[in-house]
Amino acid sequence: MDILINHWRPIPRRFPSRFRVATLGHLRKGVEDQMRSASDTLNFSFILDGGGRCRRGEENIDVKAPSVLMEWPGEYLEYGPSEKYGFWEEFYLIYDRNQVPDFLSAGLIQSGAIYRELGKPEQARKWMSEIVRLTRGEASSDKADRLDRLCELLIVDSFSSVNAVETSSVEQLLREIHQKVMREIRNEPDFEMLARQAGLSYSSFRRHWGTLFGLPPRRSLIRGRIDKACELLVNTSLSVSEVSEAVGFNDPLYFSRSFHRETGVSATQYRSRYKAH
Question: Could you give the residue range(s) of every CATH 1.10.10.60 domain in the chain?
Fold first, then answer.
């Protein structure tokens, strides 16, 4: 895809859309092309081939085509192709940060979400081909108006589910998996294997899980372990290190940091505050 005009922010619109694309592009990244930044814009990266990794804080995401990676204004991310895949092909759209409220109100982005599967990948490529065609020749208001709407259609279609499993069935299956994980809180579940057993890609599994339980799978596990730790601190005389081990934390320092993050106090302070004397 040979994009000739990348920057559309300065082009006036005759019939302004709610979603005015500022910049777009198409590129192929190698393993050496790693991004480490907090962008000032809202960015959509359509990963069409290959894959890699994305890191946000302690959260690590396996990026695999076809998918969509979103970069929120001011949020620091590290991402790029990994050795496992060697490259990725990316088609990207960039919007000014002041359009975030419009995207949120339209349901085209979800607060906190940065990665999902790309629905209708073949249709997405058709929209991209039409978008690229409009970048040829001289930029004009007519082209910019149509470009904004084609980019919006691309984003809308990217939400279409490619999974044939009925949502109700998926929800029931995930609730059963969640209950098992919480019952066996000390164990270390392989969420990618659980996703495969459920007949889902990991990105779909993670997205459905977050919708149902409010947190990604790994954070749900941590939250469940901390909840169990709170129960043991109040109802038993186990030492803090014994509680840490009992709920599945092999590293006491990681347990301490996680406990404080989730409850706002240390484990010792929690026990002192709530244990009956």
Answer: 220-274
pTM for the structure as a whole: 0.60
DSSP secondary structure letter of residue 247: T
pLDDT in tens, 175-212: 999 999 999 999 999 999 998 888 888 888 888 888 78
Q: Could you give the residue range(s) of every CATH 2.60.120.280 domain in the chain?
A: 21-157
Q: Would you place residue 123 in the very low, low, confident or very high pLDDT band (cuts 50, 70, 90)?
A: confident
CATH class, domain 21-157, is mainly beta
Q: Is 80 helix (H, G, I), strand (E, B) or coil?
A: strand
Among candidates 204, 177, 173, which has minimal Cα distance to 190?
177
Structure token pair of residue 267: 């484990």
Residue 190 phi, psi (nearest 5): -95, 95
Which long-range contacts link 157-162 to residues 24+ away (Cβ below 8 Å)?
157/119, 157/120, 157/123, 157/124, 157/127, 158/46, 158/68, 158/116, 158/118, 158/119, 158/120, 158/124, 159/108, 159/116, 159/119, 160/119, 160/120, 160/123, 161/119, 162/117, 162/118, 162/119, 162/120, 162/121
Strands (E), 72-199: 76-81, 87-96, 115-117
DSSP conformational letter for 136: S
Q: Does the domain made of 220-274 have the CATH classification 2.30.30.50?
A: no
